[in-house]
Amino acid sequence: MVIKVGISACTGFDYPEASITRIIAYKVLEELRPDETVLICLPALAADVEEDIEFGEKYPVIVIEGCNKICCTKIFEEKKLAHNIKYVYNIHELIKEYPDLQISSSLLLTSKPQVSSNLEKFMDKIAKKIVQDIDQLIKEANK
Amino acid sequence: MSIKPKIGIIACSGENKIGGTLSRAAARIVVEKLRPDNTIILCQPLFMAGGLERHGGQEERDFAKTHPTITIEGCEEECAKIAVSNYSGPPAATIYVEEIMKKYPELQPKSKRELGVNGMKLAEKIAEEIAKKVDELYNK
Question: Which residue of B has its CA nearest to A10?
Answer without folding.
Answer: B45
